[in-house]
Amino acid sequence: xxxxxxxxxxxxxxxxxxxxxxxxxxxxxxxxxxxxxxxxxxxxxxxxxxxxxxxxxxxxxxxxxxxxxxxxxxxxxxxxxxxxxxxxxxxxxxxxxxxxxxxxxxxxxxxxxxxxxxxxxxxxxxxxxxxxxxxxxxxxxxxxxxxxxxxxxxxxxxxxxxxxxxxxxxxxxxxxxxxxxxxxxxxxxxxxxxxxxxxxxxxxxxxxxxxxxxxxxxxxxxxxxxxxxxxxxxxxxxxxxxxxxxxxxxxxxxxxxxxxxxxxxxxxxxxxxxxxxxxxxxxxxxxxxxxxxxxxxxxxxxxxxxxxxxxxxxxxxxxxxxxxxxxxxxxxxxxxxxxxxxxxxxxxxxxxxxxxxxxxxxxxxxxxxxxxxxxxxxxxxxxxxxxxxxxxxxxxxxxxxxxxxxxxxxxxxxx
Length: 415
Ligand SMILES: Cc1cc2nc3c(=O)[nH]c(=O)nc-3n(C[C@H](O)[C@H](O)[C@H](O)COP(=O)(O)OP(=O)(O)OC[C@H]3O[C@@H](n4cnc5c(N)ncnc54)[C@H](O)[C@@H]3O)c2cc1C
Prior knowledge:
Layout lengths: L3 E5 L3 H12 L3 E5 L8 H4 L3 E2 L12 H8 L7 E3 L5 H13 L2 H28 L6 E2 L3 E5 L2 H16 L4 E4 L1 H7 L9 E5 L3 E3 L1 H14 L3 E3 L4 E7 L2 E7 L3 E2 L3 E4 L5 H6 L8 E10 L9 E3 L4 E5 L4 E9 L8 H14 L7 H5 L2 E7 L6 E4 L6 E5 L5 H16 L18
The structure holds flavin-adenine dinucleotide (FAD).
Flavin-adenine dinucleotide binds next to helix 1, helix 2, strand 15, strand 19 and helix 12.
């Protein structure tokens, strides 16, 4: 049965939800407060990476976060704040930083990421999308033995989970990346990973959805949501009142604010990250994460992107130049012939990752509101999990059996 569905948020999660909902025959409207040209879904590193099987909340991360609080150029920064939501999130995050959680989360992350890769490929093939998409794997480049040992262990774990991954020596790195000087003592090489150019896919998807009857209300902010008898009855934007049979909350880092209007307590913090682009020829051919610096390097269509930092400091888009410099300096440490220019650094942009306390997304129907489906909190992996999340949302709303078991992603889960 065709339903009227409003999707709040037109990032990768909202667009992919709209894509599968529209394919099922539903009438879809996307409402977004922005012009759909910036934010996390545009500045990300473009990895579709099942290799990221370890969630952000892993053993030792909280300790590192506390140590790095006093380092203005560290890759992870948690700004201490006397804010009840932040304190609850920190408590839950700390509880999730354990080996047992990682063991449980890894296969689930693998499953949704692998499904997502397949769905990206299906979309590209069936809709004739020309957006850049490549399968060259991903290096975890290491400069210290400690990190190399950790990354090789991770590659082993990934292999045990059926993902293609192995350790490579500097000689093998040179064979795979012959035209670039790389300063690393070795790497884990995740052949299972793919990469893309985010704005190309986003733009093509928006055009496709528009051509297929999806309505877009852009520069329109959802300000209030009315609920009666456990059902959303109306959505108030700064321009109009809207109503629908089903609502999808895919508002990224803002989802927690909106969930409060429904009496829900979605624990979520914004994790700011930056990107620097260079259009100069870097000759970089294989994507890489500079392991010690936690900086991502992606050869995109016509430019190379350097992305990194996770700044848990509330919802804002302030650019911290010290952290931008840290990303640029890391690039030169690993690629000694590369120096990003002042102009490239001045053009840095940022986006907010929606970070749940256990590093896993919220995908599912909340028991407190019958016509609400939540799809948010994908943290560092929203690009990788976008298509699969969209499919799952559509299956839920269409009352179909979901392609994956969603228990681990339930929005009402306890921390
Ligand atoms: C630097 C960086 C690098 C990254 N690299 C990768 C990577 O390589 N691979 C990967 O998988 N992930 C990566 N990520 C993470 C990924 O980008 C995010 O997880 C993903 O983009 C989140 O998508 P989303 O649709 O949930 O949120 P968003 O893209 O933030 O979209 C949410 C939308 O909701 C809208 N909205 C919010 N509130 C309202 C409201 N009240 N009314 C109307 N509209 C509203 C916003 O305007 C926004 O457009 C990276 C992120 C960053 C910042």
